[in-house]
Amino acid sequence: MKVFVPGDSAAISVGADDVAAAITKIDSSIEIIRNGSRGALWLETLVEVETPSGRIAYGPVTVQDVSSLFEADFLHGGSHALSLGKTDEISWLANQDRVTFARVGIIDPLSLDAYCAHGGLLGLRKALELSSQALIDEVTDSGLRGRGGAAFPAGIKWRTAAQATSDQKYICCNADEGDSGTFADRMLIEGDPFTLIEGMTIAAIAVGATEGIVYLRSEYPYAIAILQKAIDIARADSWLGKSVLGSAHSFDIQIRVGAGSYVCGEETAMLESIEGKRGVVRAKPPLPAIEGLFGKPTIINNVLTLATVPMILAEGAAVYKARGVGRSLGTQVFQLAGNIARGGIVETAFGITLKELINTYGGGTLTGRPLRAVQIGGPLGAYFSTAQFETSMDYESLIAAGGMLGHGGIVVFDDTVDLAVQAKFAMEFCAIESCGKCTPCRIGSTRGAETIDLIIQGVRVYENKRLLLDLCEVMTDGSLCAMGGLTPMPVKSAMINFSSDFTGAAR
Amino acid sequence: MKYSPFSQEAALGLLASLREEKGPVLMALQLMQSEFGYVDKACVELIANFFNKSRADVHGVLTFYHDLRTMPPTEHQISLCVAEACQAVGARELELAVKNKFGDEVQNAYCFGNCALGPAVMVDGKLIGRASLEKISAARL
């Protein structure tokens, strides 16, 4: 008898370990599989039972519900107040288009057999048959763009690194997912780590790299443990190591753990941090693809970018780029977060509207109060009002609307939010996390927080708003990276879309 | 959490395990902290000498990263996420209550990737979702 109880840290945070232990305590003959999370986080702990007609789900299960589940004969799909029916028929999941997240929540993340049974390693085997040129062409042709937020075409970055000549090249996976409201990298690593390893291996073959590094944040201890186990398994299976799946390619992966610095998610600060230094941003050029880690050609891609590559190779670029709109091709892993009734992972083709994501999937606010604001794309992303709910969720439309998609995180706020306070927080966060290299970011952020404070207190509101906009312009134009350059985005969007919060009058 | 008492001999023994690493300074500082609970001030010179760096290099790294601390930690450690997604579900109010009750044990953090089940708190390395003062108190035992 197989029962699935997610081992994802979000599920564990609401009691999944206790649920698993309680099930074992009642019947120790049950095989409990600690799968990743399906992504419907409001249903965690989501317990699934394997039956002849498919997997049957129950949720959200707490440790108190376990004995009644046994009484209801849940092992044979018996009905219970927490019954959700067949997992595959839960509309919230069934309506999604899971590509990058195809296996997350389905399989035991550390079972190589399950991985291969669900299409794992097909992409890598295909890559081994192709020339470097053909392999990079396929990735370029798929339209895959950097999912970390910068949306740079992955294939072009790969080509640059492939053309560089060097005795050593690196593949760096940016898993420093610091944006509030984003958790897709974490869930992918915890739920399907082999996909990331496969994507990195394909990238290595494409550009001729032999060493891979995953820069993974210290705030994700569960992900670090799972990925390390997965790397060890891949190594023992001769997938990583001197001869990748028996080929002439050599590739291995090491995890480097971050140390609580947000700016180290910026790619050049990340390189400095991997080199063991202060996470101070580098000027570009030189591009990391030409002169990156330890001065060698380096591909830096986000977790989701790399984890999407195996599918593109296995099924072909045409299948992937058939999804999406305009220049935003394929699927995006959206993350619904904050004050939202049904939060979690929604993977779907680009072009879904914000309204559909928030209302149809998200079900409005958790508190039940009216929704007032959403922040898209992390702490450097814009605050949108409900007036902008028809916005198409793709790279270009969001830029046109004054925002950015970033890493696809969407944070919902109800009507108790004060956007002047949020704008002040954006500046304070920048002051805390600035690497200190550029003066507009290092000092401007502190001055910005002070100026917003004056506006909140009603001191010379008109002059201070003008001053704040001027400061925003200096930060945007005078900072090397997105930390100082984009902190004005939440500030200005809050001022424009929620001007009533910036009048100096108490709300 | 249990840590070993700091000693130079133990520290040097640990550093030897990083001899083959490229760019080892941050890893060395992290290793000191995971073993001893903090980075003792003697570690700066030890690491500098061991890896042929200047003390300024090591001190610079030590003071850049929020994770690294130079004082022994409190018996319990409560890291509270106060980033936007958790703010949207009351993290600021929780912060006041938790700091009021647990004082020096509490530090602010920015995102544990549990943004759909906030407020998120890490108590002695264990992640708590939909955190409340009661849940934090229970997890701290």
TrEMBL record, chain A:
Protein's name according to its UniProt entry: Unannotated protein
SUPFAM superfamilies: Nqo1 FMN-binding domain-like, Nqo1 middle domain-like, Nqo1C-terminal domain-like
PROSITE patterns recorded: COMPLEX1_51K_2 (PS00645)
UniProt GO molecular function: 4 iron, 4 sulfur cluster binding; FMN binding; metal ion binding; NADH dehydrogenase (ubiquinone) activity
Pfam families named in the record: Complex1_51K (PF01512), NADH_4Fe-4S (PF10589)
Domain named NADH-ubiquinone oxidoreductase 51kDa subunit iron-sulphur binding: residues: 420-465
Family per record: Belongs to the complex I 51 kDa subunit family.
CDD domains: TRX_Fd_FDH_beta (cd03063)
Keywords annotated in UniProt: 4Fe-4S, Iron, Iron-sulfur, Metal-binding
InterPro entries the UniProt entry points to: NADH-UbQ_OxRdtase_51kDa_CS, Nuo51_FMN-bd, Nuo51_FMN-bd_sf, Nuop51_4Fe4S-bd, Nuop51_4Fe4S-bd_sf
UniProtKB/TrEMBL annotation, chain B:
Keyword Cell wall biogenesis/degradation: no
Pfam family, one: 2Fe-2S_thioredx
Keywords from the UniProt entry: Iron, Iron-sulfur, Metal-binding
GO function terms (MF aspect): iron-sulfur cluster binding; metal ion binding
InterPro entries membership: NADP_DH_HndA-like, NuoE_N, Thioredoxin-like_sf
Protein name per the record: Unannotated protein
The species this protein was found in: freshwater metagenome
